[in-house]
């Protein structure tokens, strides 16, 4: 196993500073030995250099992290979030108000709309925070990234359920109408009598 000069690099995963308060002085010293331009680079990439993690959530640290914000990316993400929330809210509202839409296939569509609504409400804002390296607390960072992954996975599985439902309905229409009911789509199964 070789020793890496940047020992704190695993703490800065995917560009996220976990703010654990480690001072990686070896990088700064080795960079100073090379040249002064890499000293600035090494000092800026070390994890947790500066104030302790408790003061990293201050408004000053938040404003400082916004300097790293990619404005076109953030604008596109915000537009996608607003469109996702508005469009999926309309789908859910239409399904709730119109009784004729309450068919077995549409339950899968509404499930997908709810998952995408949560992605727009929570997932995209957390992705924007992660893109600028917030939050600095390890557990908060892990929570936001984990929630983002879970929400996107739920959305993908809902899309798979819609695809399987449509595939089965088109290729095997008689078996589909015989075996799939609205109660099964919602998840209400009749109670089985005891044996």
TrEMBL record:
<keyword id="KW-0472">Membrane</keyword>
<keyword id="KW-0675">Receptor</keyword>
<dbReference type="InterPro" id="IPR000276">
    <property type="entry name" value="GPCR_Rhodpsn"/>
</dbReference>
<keyword id="KW-0812">Transmembrane</keyword>
<protein>
    <submittedName>
        <fullName>Adenosine receptor A2b</fullName>
    </submittedName>
</protein>
<feature type="transmembrane region" description="Helical">
    <location>
        <begin position="137"/>
        <end position="162"/>
    </location>
</feature>
<dbReference type="InterPro" id="IPR017452">
    <property type="entry name" value="GPCR_Rhodpsn_7TM"/>
</dbReference>
<dbReference type="GO" id="GO:0001973">
    <property type="term" value="P:G protein-coupled adenosine receptor signaling pathway"/>
</dbReference>
<keyword id="KW-0807">Transducer</keyword>
<dbReference type="Pfam" id="PF00001">
    <property type="entry name" value="7tm_1"/>
</dbReference>
<keyword id="KW-0297">G-protein coupled receptor</keyword>
<feature type="transmembrane region" description="Helical">
    <location>
        <begin position="71"/>
        <end position="95"/>
    </location>
</feature>
<keyword id="KW-1003">Cell membrane</keyword>
<comment type="similarity">
    <text>Belongs to the G-protein coupled receptor 1 family.</text>
</comment>
<keyword id="KW-0325">Glycoprotein</keyword>
<feature type="transmembrane region" description="Helical">
    <location>
        <begin position="107"/>
        <end position="131"/>
    </location>
</feature>
<dbReference type="GO" id="GO:0007189">
    <property type="term" value="P:adenylate cyclase-activating G protein-coupled receptor signaling pathway"/>
</dbReference>
<dbReference type="GO" id="GO:0004930">
    <property type="term" value="F:G protein-coupled receptor activity"/>
</dbReference>
<keyword id="KW-1133">Transmembrane helix</keyword>
<feature type="domain" description="G-protein coupled receptors family 1 profile">
    <location>
        <begin position="87"/>
        <end position="195"/>
    </location>
</feature>
<dbReference type="GO" id="GO:0005886">
    <property type="term" value="C:plasma membrane"/>
</dbReference>
């Amino acid at each position: 196993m070789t020793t890496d000069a940047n020992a704190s690099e695993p703490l800065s995963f995917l560009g996220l500073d976990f703010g654990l308060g480690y001072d990686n002085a070896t990088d700064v010293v080795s960079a100073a030995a090379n040249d002064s331009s890499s000293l600035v680079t090494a000092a800026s990439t070390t994890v947790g250099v500066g104030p302790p993690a408790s003061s990293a959530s201050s408004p000053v640290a938040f404003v400082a992290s916004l300097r790293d914000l990619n404005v076109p990316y953030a604008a596109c993400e915000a537009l996608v979030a607003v469109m996702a929330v508005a469009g999926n809210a309309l789908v859910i509202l239409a399904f709730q108000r119109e009784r004729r839409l309450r068919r077995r296939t549409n339950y899968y569509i509404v499930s997908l709309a709810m998952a995408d609504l949560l992605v727009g409400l929570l997932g995209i804002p957390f992705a924007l925070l992660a893109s600028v390296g917030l939050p600095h607390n390890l557990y908060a960072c892990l929570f936001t990234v984990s929630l983002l992954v879970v929400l996107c996975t739920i959305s993908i599985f809902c899309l798979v359920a819609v695809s399987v439902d449509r595939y089965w309905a088109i290729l095997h229409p008689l078996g589909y109408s015989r075996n799939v009911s609205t109660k099964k789509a919602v998840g209400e199964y009749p109670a089985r009598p005891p044996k």
